[in-house]
Amino acid sequence: MRNAQLLIFLIIVVTAASFIQKGANKNENQNPENNSKAISPSATPSPTPADTAPAIKNPTPTATQNQNSSSTDMNFYKYPNSQTKKTSSSRLVLESSDDPSVITDWYIEKLKNQNMKLNSFVKTKTNNNVLNKLISSNGTIKVSITISKKNSDTNAKIAVEI
Questions:
Q1: Is residue 101 in a domain?
Q2: Position 30 in a domain
Q3: CA atoms within 13 A on the CB side of 37
Q4: Residue 108: helix, strand or coil by DSSP?
Q5: How many Å from the N-terminal Cα to the C-terminal Cα in the chain?
Q6: Which tens digits make up the pLDDT trace of 48-74?
Q7: Is residue 79 part of a domain?
Q8: Dihedral sign computed on CA atoms, order 146, 147, 150, 156
Q9: CATH (domain of 128)
Q10: pLDDT digit string (tens) for 74-112?
Q11: Lowest-pLDDT range of 9-13, 38-42, 72-76, 150-154
Q12: Is there a domain that residue 109 lies in?
C-alpha cells in the first residue's frame, strides 16, 4: 500500500510540474519583453582598407602614327618584294613571288617592332596550299594580315586590313 501511495504522489508531482511548465511557456509567448533569449542585432562588417582592391589604372597607349588617316599610311605595311594590286585607306592587297613563310616572318617582325601584340596567328599548309593569318593590335589600331598561296599560283597574295 505504501508503494501505491508513493506512486500516486509522484504522478501528482509530475502532473503539477507539467502544468507549471506549460503556464510559464504561455507567459513567455504572450510577453516577449520578458523573454530571456534576447536576440542581439548582428553587426554588418564594413570594409577595411585591406579588404578593398586597389584601383587598376589603364596603361596610357604610346603615341603611334595614325594608321587610318590616309592611303600613304598603308604603305607602312607594304612587303618590300611585292607589287600593289589594290589599295584604299584601310585595305592593301599585294602579290609577291617570295615564299609565304618568309613573308609571314617579315610581318611578324614588323608588328613586333611597332610594339603590337600578336592576338591571333594561324599558319596552315595543305597540299602546298598556304593560308597564314595574323591579327595584331596595340590598343589604338588593329591590323589583320592574310597571306595565301594556292598550289597552282606562282605568287603569294597578301591582304592587309586596318
A1: yes
A2: no
A3: 3
A4: helix
A5: 111
A6: 554 444 444 433 333 334 333 333 378
A7: no
A8: positive
A9: 3.30.310.80
A10: 888 999 999 999 998 899 999 999 999 999 999 999 988
A11: 38-42
A12: yes
Give the chain's domain count.
Answer: 1
Lowest-pLDDT choice from 4-13, 26-35, 63-72, 149-158: 63-72
With a pLDDT cut of 90, the percent of the chain lying above it is: 39
Provide the CB-side half-sphere exposure for 148 (13 A, CA).
9
For cell 592587309, the residue is 160
- Where b means 16+ CB within 10 Å and e means fewer, 7-37 reads eeeeeeeeeeeeeeeeeeeeeeeeeeeeeee
Global model pTM greater than 0.70: no
> Any idea how long the chain is?
162
What is the extent of the structural domain holding 122?
Answer: 91-161
